[in-house]
Each structure stands twice: as structure tokens, then as C-alpha cells.
Design a protein that fits this description.
The chain has four helices and four strands, in the order βαββαααβ. By secondary structure, it is α+β, with helices and mostly antiparallel strands. The protein has a single domain, classed as Alpha-Beta Plaits. It has a four-stranded antiparallel β-sheet with strand order 2-3-1-4. 11% of the residues are buried.
């Protein structure tokens, strides 16, 4: 099992385009033995502390294996909409982790 945390930073004014991409991409996760465990959109009132920029969204996803995650990334349906991701996301950070307990 692998765990991935993604911090997503959106280009200003491109939120609707990002949501269009997510509408396609997120439902594909279970097809590849994945689970969207958490999807959070922090706000100024919920942001407690940090030295970095506040992300637009934070995703925590698990997959049974790295191969399952890589298959998700290569999904043909998802690839058709990558232009929406490229148009709307300024940058992102993907962090791979393991469950400790």
C-alpha cells in the first residue's frame, strides 16, 4: 500500500477549469485500486500555521501498489483531460509516504 499527499496550487481565476479536471480524474481512482481518503480545501480561517504558501486543495490518496498508481496516471480517459490540469494548476507537490500505525 502506498499513500500519496498532493498539495495543489491553482492559477488565479482557473478554479472552474480545475474542478472540470477533478470531475473526470477523481472517479477513476477506484478503478486502479485507489482510495481518495481526504480532499481538503483550506481557508484562511482554517490555516493555523505554515512557512509555505497555502495550497488550494490537499488530497490524500492510497493505492494498493506503485503500479496501480502508475496505471491511474496513464489512464486514457484521464489523459484526454490533462489539458485542463495544465491550464489550471500552477504547481503541485506530491509526497509519498507509508502508514506508521
Amino acid at each position: 500500500m502506498i499513500y500519496l499527499t498532493q498539495l495543489i496550487y491553482i492559477k488565479e481565476g482557473q478554479e472552474a477549469i480545475f474542478h472540470q479536471f477533478e470531475t473526470v480524474a477523481l472517479p477513476l481512482i477506484p478503478k486502479y485500486k485507489g482510495n481518495l481518503m481526504l480532499r481538503v480545501r483550506p481557508t484562511e480561517s482554517t490555516w493555523i500555521e505554515g512557512t509555505g504558501e497555502q495550497p488550494y486543495e490537499i488530497h490524500l490518496v492510497s493505492f494498493d501498489s506503485v503500479q496501480d498508481f502508475e496505471s491511474f496516471m496513464r489512464d486514457d480517459e484521464r489523459k484526454k483531460f490533462l489539458h485542463l490540469k495544465e491550464q489550471s494548476i500552477r504547481s503541485s507537490m506530491l509526497i509519498q509516504g507509508t502508514r506508521l500505525a
